[in-house]
Amino acid sequence: MLDVKEIRRHFSIYESEKKLCYLDSAASALKLKESNEALNKYLEHNGTNVHRGVYKLSYEATLAYEETREVVANFLNAKTEEIVYTRGATEALNMTALLYGMKYLNEGDEVISSELEHHSSLMPWLKVATLKKAKMQYVPLASDSRITVENFKKVLSKKTKVVCLTHVSNVLGYITPIKEIIKLAHEVGAVVVVDGAQGAPHLKVDVKDLDCDFYCFSAHKLCGPTGVGILYGKKSILDNLDPLYYGGDMADQVYLDKMTYKDTPYKFEAGTMMIGEVIALKEAILFLEKVGLENIQKHEEYLKDLALKELKQIPNVIIYNENVETGIIAFNIKNTHPHDAASVYDKNNVCLRAGHHCALPVIRHLQCVGTLRASFYLYNDEEDVKKFVEATKEAAKFFEIFM
Ligand code: PMP
Question: Is 170 in the pocket of ligand 1 (CB under 6 A)?
């Protein structure tokens, strides 16, 4: 168990919301005090642009902005040139499809995705594959709705050019055996895009060890600010891609009939970026590293096991991922719409998510209209599990008339 009392000292919301039981970190994590302070410090005491000014304040903003790149590179075991700032995982994933897919996909090529994907992973590739007359292939999910290596092999072929899969499912919490999948994909010459939005906040990620070609995530799911995300790409691949946006800061030379741009990663960062948010992201990552990703993972698993054990005893609770390995529980109260059930949790100050979690294909696969989802993170404790279990008992009892 982590020292949650100490950890909560770094999350101001626990001072203002004394009864808070926050179990919706898979949607967005609570925001770290040090990260908020860094953003505020930039806004209040700097506020200048980066890479442009030739005065001290702008120079300091540039240094802080670039320091985050080093911290992110170290977090992923990447090189700083391979770290591109984006507005979030969604933008990063779209960039992979719009830049790599539009350039390299041809008619008849195949893109492998899965029913487990978040819309932000699936939709950009579905769009680009359609435009390029390439074919989408979906890994058949195993009986417990996970992606397995065995099933991945069923759709992998010489026609596969791109594989885009989630590292950890935001609906069911399963960890994709991504390293083995990447190895197999590379054997047929395909590139692999990893949606790390739910992976990076919860697992120790080493992009060199995984050997993935792209890895995308958002700051807000790892206790950092909204509006900033990361696109990791292998330098050799990024160097051969065109920018997505054109304009300020990314240009090298501009004439009326031709133009050149800066090198990777700067050519992908056009216009005035979300400077304060980038600076703030550094604090969030340093904090998670200090606590230790492995320790966070163990802590979440412990709380999830505790909750699952209790949940299984409650009549009329349907659990969709009993053998999940991370801190996400997907469930429903029998014959009850998840939104109706959610009102009972809200009444008890338990914040959890109800709905399709921006992943409609897997909701259809589970044959339900949506699920309830409790997700644990480093600031949750046994008391949260207790409140969650009590609220579930109340909801199951309240909706008993519909059974
Ligand atoms: N992929 C997964 C697995 C996610 O959980 C999310 C966020 N819920 C996204 C992609 C999209 O992230 P964002 O909304 O931060 O762009």
Answer: yes
Maximum distance among all Cα pairs of the chain, rounded to whole angstroms: 73
On the CB side of 16, CA atoms within 13 Å amount to 6
Q: What is the pLDDT of residues 372-402, one digit of tens each?
A: 999 999 999 999 999 999 999 999 999 877 6
Find the mean pLDDT for residues 269-298.
98
How far, in Å, CA of 373 to CA of 285, rounded? 25
pTM of the model: 0.97
Determine the residue type at 281: L
Nearby residues of 115 by Cβ (< 8 Å), 6 or more positions away: 138, 139, 141, 361, 362, 364, 365
CB 195 near ligand 1, within 6 Å: yes
Q: Confirm if 220 and 88 have CB atoms less than 8 A apart.
A: yes
CB 35 within 8 A of CB 284: yes
Class of residue 228 by CB neighbours under 10 A (exposed 0-12, middle 13-18, buried 19+)? buried
pLDDT, residue 317, reads: 96
User: Is any atom of ligand 1 closer than 6 Å to the C-beta of 113?
Assistant: no
Instruction: Give the span between the Cα atoms of 97 and 102, in whole angstroms.
Output: 7
- Do 382 and 345 meet the contact criterion of CB atoms below 8 Å apart? no
Q: Which residue is closest in CA terms to ligand 1's atom 9?
A: 197
Location of structure tokens 């993170």: 377
223 in catalytic set: no
Q: Which residues, in sequence order, are bridge partners of residue 24? A: 375
* Eight-state DSSP code of residue 51: S
